[in-house]
Design goal:
Shape: globular
Order of helices and strands: HHHEEHEHEHEEEH
Distance between the termini: 30 Å
Radius of gyration: 17 Å
Largest sheet: 5 strands, mixed
Number of helices: 7
Helix content: 40-55%
Length: 183
């Protein structure tokens, strides 16, 4: 497993708080996830997770390291978009501090197994600006009020005072529209 793949696995453990769920998401054995976490922890020089009955919880002080790992993975994804030989995909951008809801992550995994273009997660500081600049096709944002009327939105998680929304430009390509219907 490459270093970037190990970082992806660690980011998934941080999102799901589960070694077994990360293994399922990445299609690898739990032992592979455990070895990936151990390798990254050895590299950073301190433990990232406490493992226990409640799953893999972040160690005190590990959040900045996880945020950096997510930025590295996002930066690597951005680099891949510069190459002309990358597979056709639509990109879903969000900030590092806004995790994908579990059902959205599961939808992306199922979609990518069965469809092309694939849905790719990209972590950026300003997903809406990236959407408006044409750098990504979908932005995921946390809102507590009205959004931009020129953009289409789909609520993926509603909370008491806010909601997580997927935002895209009007009239998306057919494949992306089908993906959005499955969310």
């Amino acid at each position: 497993m490459s270093d970037i793949e190990r970082l992806r696995v660690v980011a998934t453990v941080a999102h799901t708080h589960s070694i077994s769920e990360a293994a399922r998401v990445h299609g690898v054995a739990q032992s592979t996830v455990t070895r990936s976490v151990a390798a990254v922890e050895a590299h950073v020089g301190f433990p990232l997770f406490r493992r226990g009955v409640a799953g893999a919880q972040l160690e005190v002080g590990a959040r900045p390291a996880i945020a950096l790992i997510e930025r590295i993975v996002g930066g690597f994804d951005e680099l891949r978009t510069l190459g002309g030989d990358r597979p056709e995909a639509f990109r879903l951008a969000h900030r590092a501090d806004l995790q994908l809801p579990a059902h959205l992550e599961s939808t992306m995994i199922r979609w990518n197994r069965e469809h092309t273009p694939h849905a790719e997660e990209v972590i950026l500081d300003d997903p809406i600006a990236a959407l408006l600049a044409g750098e990504v096709e979908i932005a995921m944002v946390l809102r507590s009020g009205p959004g931009n009327e020129d953009l289409e939105t789909r609520v993926v998680k509603a909370m008491r005072t806010s909601r997580v929304e997927l935002v895209n430009l009007p009239d998306p390509p057919a494949e992306m529209a089908e993906f959005l219907l499955r969310v």
